[in-house]
Design goal:
The radius of gyration is 18 Å and the shape is globular. It contains eleven helices and ten strands. By secondary structure, the protein is of the alpha/beta class.
Amino acid sequence: KDRLFALLELATKFYEKQLWDGAGKEKILGYLRGRGLSDDSIKSFRLGYAPDGWRHGLDFFTSKGFSVGEMEQVGLVLKREGGSGHYDRFRDRIMFPIFDIFGHVIGYSARVAPGGDETQAKYINTPETAIYHKSRALYGLFHAKQAMKQAGMTVIVEGNMDVIAMHQAGIGHTVAVSGTALTAEQLTLMKRYGNEVRLFFDMDGAGQKAARKSAELALEKELQVSVVALPFGKDAADMGKDDAEKLRE
């Protein structure tokens, strides 16, 4: 397990380096700042960039003494279909590391780079591994846990960007589910920090449907539930960019 944590820590540093000093410096950093994220937030949440190409990560991790088997175990590489060899799972994507409660990187949520290959899924996540269980993982939990305890409640948003925008606006008790609907296990986790959840989902049909399902699940867990409705803007990230004061309100 320690080897797997060490590999993901190395990968996160590799992606961070690519973002700040490498291929992502112009295009990706500009995009993240344009979405209203501060450099401090980008560094605090350890965002990175996986460069375009089939073997950048694979070659780098190999050079640092990790085996292809270990890379496969944490979901960093994929086996070539029908052929021999492996290739990087994450290519030309913005990397959002997902941390466990202790601050170890356990997986990633990876967004297609702006102007990248839009035929691919907008977000891809690390698959289930020995250390990443999506039904239990919460994006932002490591950063939010103190504030959750103090506030006695958790705000749940839909996207990674929304989490960062909320933290930036001073609403630190915010988390998101990554690539899955809200689960009973995640709610049990939140309940350790307080008895109330506030659902802050997109105002579109899909968002509201998800909010309803999530509310029912939270009520079953005997949590107090409220839903935040936006007066304007698409989501928390947009609103945080336009008017952080309004978002806090």
